[in-house]
Amino acid sequence: MADILCVEDLSVFVGSFRLKNISFRVSEDEVFVILGPSGAGKTLLLETIAGFHKVTGGRILICGKDVTRAPPYRRGLSLIFQDYALFPHLTVRENILFGTRYRSGVHISENLSHLTNLLEIQGLLDRMPATLSGGEAQRVALARALLCQPKVLLSDEPFTALDAPMRQKLRAQFLQTIRGLKQAVLFVTHDRNEAYQLATKVAVMDDGRILQIGGKEEIFYKPQSTDIAEFLGVETLLEGVVEEHKDGLLKIRVGDSIISALGERRVGEKVTLCLRADRVSLEMDEDAARSTIRNRFNGVVREIHTEGPVAYVIVDCGFKVTAAVTRLSVEELGIKENSTVFLSFKATSIHTF
User: Fold this and answer.
1) Claim: this prediction has a pTM higher than 0.70
2) What total of structural domains would you count in the chain?
3) 318 is in which domain, residue-wise?
């Protein structure tokens, strides 16, 4: 697919904060998520691409055209803000049509009808913004941004202020609405779950720098450093030393145990092992745990934490591993603190750096 948005070696100074040599590309129909903690520079990056800040180095290209010094209204993009930014004196219909006020044509009316039906706001068109709920206001803001048919859609944590069920609903509506519009979407968030749900590609950002870029599976399951892994919530991080390397299979000593992993590492090299909790299987019966999986250990349950329907079970096998299972499984298997369990995980589930 063609690149719609290209950011090349971008640097920006605002006060004492700096965006440092940022580069990435966003293709047509791609949702590129900038994921990072508060203060990472995510909003500053978005505002710079929009044309609100002076660039001190690098370039911004949209559809191959250098817009680095172009004013915001000549960049062919739309923005969605966290606070909706609706005009309080205009109706919902007038707000949505605001960006098209210098255009005419039947297609605007057709597109308005299509978007409002898709976003389920067709019954709100004559209402004033003050009468809208947060979810309704955000859908109006999205309709306004998309009716302009921008080449690039910039979204600055648009669902953060909403409650969890509404966030989930709007994320799904967002993906459905932008599908097939041949736009590049740049979406900023600090929420890991939101990034995983929405992204085609993810860039992890902190302190004004892009730390890692990749597909969401690569980012979440193969982080390149301990800092990235911890920010992404990798549950098990272990330190080890490579004892054997044969045909791409590694034998890594962790304490008194050997863990098998795939990769290319030198014998004697110190490595960090990453293991996601959803890649770990738990059993109470040793026979049930037997399989062709290389990594099989027994251990003692030290802690159990629940988050909704999921239980995170921390097991001490001489090293600590966290497994994610359903709360129902915990009850049915009789998993309790201080009970002995048998766990297993594939060599392919281990990532090393």
Assistant:
1) yes
2) 2
3) 236-352
